[in-house]
Design brief:
It contains one helix and 25 strands. It has 300 residues and is mainly beta. The protein has a single domain, classed as Jelly Rolls (Sandwich), CATH 2.60.120.10. The termini are close together.
Length: 300
């Protein structure tokens, strides 16, 4: 296994079934399942399609939803019913099990654009009660030619109120032309995603939707953009727990996943019911004809 910076290409995948939208996914990546505790990065839009995701389950993770354009109605089995607007954060902690739906609302004549990410929960928190947080106001850090809205964790002394269970950072960066230097924690590994354009990250070009992984040991990263550009910065201490990831579930073994799937398909109380959908839900796909194994890190 090498410990090098590397660039990651996104792959296009469908989200939410036949009425869903396509997203560009950079994590998990073959050979790099996590960056810190971040284990899933989806970038959707800009697109004229809209989000129509019926109730579906999660285990072992936190969902982090950050819209850039378009309003999203979130409902879950905890009773939450929130319209999420650009510049606001939804954070849902699954614990042992949670279910939610996400639908575009309001003026749907404009494009949808945003990010949805997962954070792997450590063993000490991956079971237990689920929770939901809506954060309409988040702290801002800034420096020469850059501004950052801190979604999760801390960046340059600006700390998000969102609940975390591992050392981490997640921030939307607005970078202006002329070069910018953003401070990093050297014990963290990091990644930078080009959300709205191209950028030089530590001297290496990444194109729109591409991600640049940065190994631990850096105290800062130099960024350069030709025009004002939105980037996503994520990071944290390398996650050393083995993860078995399948569909919307994260566990530690094949048996964890089988049980979660069985509980969803049997409408177990584990996942409750999301009000307002008249019993409609996304069915789990069939289990593969093989034993699920933990994702291994081989490239960083």
């Amino acid at each position: 296994m090498t410990s090098l910076d590397l660039s990651l290409d996104a792959r296009e995948v469908p989200l939410g079934g036949v009425r869903g939208i396509s997203v560009h996914r950079t994590l998990p990546h073959r050979g790099l399942p996590t960056v810190g505790p971040w284990c899933f990065v989806d970038h959707f839009g800009p697109t004229a399609d809209h989000m129509n995701v019926l109730p579906h389950p999660h285990t072992g993770l936190q969902t982090v939803t950050w819209p850039l354009a378009g309003d999203i109605r979130h409902r879950d089995n905890l009773g939450s019913d929130v319209v999420l607007k650009p510049g606001e954060l939804n954070l849902m902690t699954s614990g042992d099990g949670v279910a939610h739906s996400e639908f575009s609302v309001g003026d749907t004549s404009g494009p949808m654009h945003g990010l949805q990410l997962w954070v792997a929960l450590p063993n000490l928190r991956r079971t237990g009660a689920a929770g939901f947080e809506h954060h309409p106001d988040l702290p801002v850090a800034d420096g020469k030619n850059w501004t950052a809205t801190v979604l999760m964790g801390e960046l340059d002394a600006a700390a998000s109120p969102a609940t975390t269970y591992s050392p981490m950072v997640g921030a939307e960066l607005t970078v202006r032309p002329g070069g910018a230097v953003v401070p990093l924690r050297p014990e963290f590994e990091h990644a930078v995603l080009a959300v709205t354009g191209e950028a030089l990250v530590g001297g290496t070009e990444i194109v729109h939707r591409q991600m640049r992984y940065l190994a631990p040991g850096r105290e800062d990263v130099e960024l350069f953009v030709p025009t004002e550009t939105t980037l996503l910065l994520i990071g944290g201490t390398p996650f050393d727990e083995e993860l078995v990831m399948w569909w919307n579930f994260i566990g530690r073994s094949h048996e964890d996943i089988v049980q979660a799937r069985d509980d969803w398909e049997s409408a177990s109380e584990r996942f409750g019911e999301v009000a307002g959908h008249k019993g409609q839900r996304i069915p789990a796909p069939p289990m593969p004809d093989l034993r699920l194994k933990p994702r291994r890190r081989t490239v960083a």
